[in-house]
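Lecture notes, part 5. Sequence design as translation. It can be helpful to think of inverse folding as translation between two languages: the language of shapes and the language of residues. The source text, in structure tokens, appears below.
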């Protein structure tokens, strides 16, 4: 039995390929606090390694060879029964604020390193870019005999501290531009929807996250909205080389029910319609892709979630509470709840309707506090329940399809005027729907709006002033007012939430 969480499965085989074919990387050796051996005379020379021309780690990796990086030009007074070890410390900067220890091999007085190990350190500390990097490196030295390790020269002695020009070993390519192409544009490469970069300030290799927002109509959903990802080079060349398909993750519950999840893996798909993703529900969508990890996540790109329920008119969604989001995945906000409620993705009941997944509601002291949700569309599904009429702070995650509900039984002002004592604070009084809270307070200096005598859900304002309705922000800044008596009104009935301060 198969249940579809968002879109139909892809009836093609999953061909997982490794994105890294580097030479085996030996684990970094740990050097315990060693004894000091002062008698050895050791001299190292960089020669021309990485000076005139970069050390091309790709060439050595392709030949299956270690890359030479340093020469031993002198070694005297070294104990015959000990083995010489000279690890390489790769620094994040010239001061080696952070560094990685990379194992080396010594053969015929030449110190060499595995291309993969050197590249891993560069990626971790400097950049994941495949371009030539300037790398700061230093070399301590050790005499090792079984469990006995002696550091040559002293704990702060390095026998060479140099800079290399290095071309890292690169096994994959990330382009600067990608496009969404599918049957919505008749598979025309020149009519695709362009992705946006999440972070334009760094190399695509250092942040490989891209997003694209698009809409699927009811007609397109009924037909099956097919889509795949195409790099800019394929668009320029007029072919499908480098194109990627989307294979969803399928989970199976204890009853054997399979669910196609909203996330999965990218696979090479150099043919027009092969391995295409399929969307079968209308709505606005946000597709997030990481081209380094070759993973994707698909979410509805909803600006709000509305919270209708008993006591809330569904004929006028302008007065229905809304939850807001900054990432189209997590939603939060205040809502008046009474007995039963659910979530919609639009100002109406026709379309996306999230209701409870049977048997998933969790209770504390007899009150439902969390649970799982499903999109039941226009019909089906049971409403979420709440035992006590009141104002609730809701958190909803559309990726995990889970929610939590915390009743705001107390709304208080806490600040300098009462020693920031949340537990003993005087509460504001709610209206009949617990949406507008009022009170009169002697204020002096900074304060915040507190709930339930705790600090997990509190509010401040970045625009606070006297005599006007100011935006009230979840976890916002402290509000600062001159000393005086104030009538205070906190309004959770609509977004943005507001606080009005009127001085008597």
């Amino acid at each position: 039995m198969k249940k579809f969480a968002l879109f139909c499965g892809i009836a093609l085989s999953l061909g997982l390929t490794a994105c890294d074919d580097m030479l085996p990387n030996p684990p970094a050796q740990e050097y315990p606090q060693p004894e000091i051996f002062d008698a050895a005379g050791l001299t190292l020379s960089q020669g021309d390694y990485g000076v005139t021309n970069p050390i091309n780690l790709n060439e050595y990796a392709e030949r299956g060879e270690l890359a030479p990086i340093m020469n031993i030009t002198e070694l005297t007074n070294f104990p015959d029964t000990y083995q010489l070890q000279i690890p390489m410390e790769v620094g994040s900067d010239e001061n080696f604020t952070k560094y990685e220890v990379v194992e080396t091999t010594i053969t015929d007085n030449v110190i060499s390193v595995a291309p993969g190990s050197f590249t891993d350190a560069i990626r971790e500390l400097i950049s994941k870019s495949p371009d030539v990097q300037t790398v700061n490196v230093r070399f301590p030295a050790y005499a090792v005999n079984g469990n006995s390790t002696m550091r040559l020269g002293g704990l702060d002695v390095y026998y060479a501290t140099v800079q290399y020009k290095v071309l890292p070993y690169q096994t994959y390519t990330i382009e600067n531009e990608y496009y969404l192409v599918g049957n919505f544009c008749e598979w025309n490469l020149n009519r695709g929807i362009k992705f946006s970069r999440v972070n334009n300030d760094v190399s695509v290799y250092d942040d490989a996250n891209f997003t694209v927002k698009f809409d699927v109509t009811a007609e397109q959903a009924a037909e099956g909205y097919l889509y795949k990802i195409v790099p800019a080079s394929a668009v320029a060349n007029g072919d499908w080389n480098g194109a990627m398909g989307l294979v969803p993750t399928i989970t199976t519950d204890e009853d054997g029910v399979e669910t196609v999840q909203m996330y999965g893996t990218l696979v090479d798909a150099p043919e027009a319609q092969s391995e295409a993703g399929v969307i079968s529900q209308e709505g606005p969508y946000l597709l997030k892709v990481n081209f380094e990890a070759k993973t994707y996540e698909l979410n509805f790109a909803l600006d709000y979630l509305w919270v209708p329920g008993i006591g809330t008119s569904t004929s006028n969604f302008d007065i229905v509470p809304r939850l807001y989001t900054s990432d189209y995945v997590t939603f939060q906000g205040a809502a008046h709840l009474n007995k039963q409620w659910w979530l919609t993705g639009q100002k109406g009941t026709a379309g996306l309707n999230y209701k409870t997944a049977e048997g998933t509601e969790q209770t504390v002291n007899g009150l439902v506090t969390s649970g799982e949700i499903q999109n039941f569309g226009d019909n089906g599904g049971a409403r979420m329940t709440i035992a006590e009429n009141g104002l609730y702070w809701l958190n909803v995650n559309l990726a995990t399809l889970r929610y939590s509900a915390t009743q705001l039984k107390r709304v208080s002002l806490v600040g300098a005027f009462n020693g920031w004592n949340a537990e003993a604070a005087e509460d504001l009084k709610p209206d009949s729907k617990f949406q507008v809270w009022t009170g009169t307070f002697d204020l002096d200096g900074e304060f915040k709006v507190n709930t339930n005598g705790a600090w997990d859900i509190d509010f401040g304002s970045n625009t606070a002033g006297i005599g006007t309705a100011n935006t009230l922000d979840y976890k916002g800044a402290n509000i600062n007012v001159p000393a005086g008596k104030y009538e205070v009104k906190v309004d959770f009935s609509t977004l943005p939430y507001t606080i009005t301060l009127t001085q008597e």
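The translated text above is only one of many valid answers, since several sequences can fold into similar shapes. Residues 1-24 have pLDDT under 50 and may be disordered.
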